[in-house]
Amino acid sequence: MIDSADVVVVGSGAFGASVAYHLARRGARVAVLERAGLASQTSPRAAGLSSQVRATPALTKLAQRAVSKLAVFSEETGQPLRFTQSGALKIARTDRDAEQLAREVARGAAAGVPIELISVAEARRRLPILGERGMVAVTWSPTDCNVEPSELPIGYCRAAEKLGAVLLSHTPATGFAIGPRGVEGVRTPGGTIATRVVVDAAGGWARLVATGLGGALPVVPTRHQLLITEPIPGVGPEFPIARVIDANVYIRHERGGLMLGGYEADPWQVDVAALSTSFDMAELPLDIEVLWRLARSVSEQFPIFQDPTIRVAEHRGGLPTLTTDDRYLAGPLPGVAGAWVMSGCCVGGLSVSPALGEAMAEWILDGAPPRPASSGTSSTRPYSASAAATPTPPTTGRVAWGRRRSKPVGDDERIVAPCADSLTSTQRVAPAG
Q1: What is the pLDDT of residue 369?
Q2: Contacts of 129 (CB under 8 A, 6+ apart)
Q3: What's 235's domain CATH number?
Q4: N or C end: fewer C-beta atoms under 10 angstroms in the chain?
Q5: In 3-state terms, what secondary structure has residue 346?
Q6: Domain with 329 in it: what CATH number?
């Protein structure tokens, strides 16, 4: 146990591990607290998909930066990461969604992201398991990628440790010392760690951590599931990611088989305060029929999932956090000097975490949000303390999920929302020297 740190990061998932690594790389003394095993909860149960064309130029730059960092992750950190730049197909089955794809092609051209409309025949050449029917338009994004999600957060944790970060697994943050100047320490079962800066990256528990800091965080932990089949002859890593917009389904290669996931109509949302303190994500109740319903909804495009010989090798799920407006929450926690938050992954946090963690570290240490041109972080829609206190989690979470179901797999409407309307110089708390 240590007695002080420049920054204490609560949570070792993709967000927490990335910001810890980037802070340590800048020379900060960092401690990472994790209530369970390191990098063991929702992040390793993710799909690991990237999508670079986003709703705003700033967020597109963030996604581009993330992909560029994923491509050199092992070189940069010295840690393994399975990285496959297989490209991605996005499928519109309605005229409305075809219009969305046309807008994405225009945004991609403006941002320098390779993306183009292609014929169904060309899409089938790239993805031989794709059917022939029911498609109005298809885009091809050759630089989109996928990664092995379990390797990313633990890789950042180990790289941060080599830079001097202290990793404390099975060590929850049990409370916080808040003084007149803001954060003064983090309480743990092993004692208090003196610090002026805390980053709440606690995933499904982020709302509870924010409450302990004296702030409010409008996020709702919501179950998301996927399945991976046993190996299928002819399926290989060259197969691109495929997304069907209106069905809210994504498919990609994984370990010689196929991964299928998506967004269910009435997701199970969890009050983590009611869970046992020893709860582990491996205990999360899952329902595979949800995934088979999604598979049936794309049977014309992916008839392979109707093959009765298909067997499931893995069925997994986690508790990503949803926000009331389907936007990431990243920045200072309003009203608590020295408290920062990275939350609201909205089922898309892992792939953007390299760039978002880098940007957050820069913001914390330098006292101002990075410019979009350098990192892609954007103050496009501030998140205020009053807004944070408004929502009732089950209702607003389902509203956000409903918006995600209307435009889910392409991140067509998602932007980054910093957690403050404005920051004074006293609110920009740098680590102690």
Answers
A1: 84
A2: 234, 235, 239, 258, 302, 304
A3: 3.30.9.10
A4: C
A5: coil
A6: 3.50.50.60
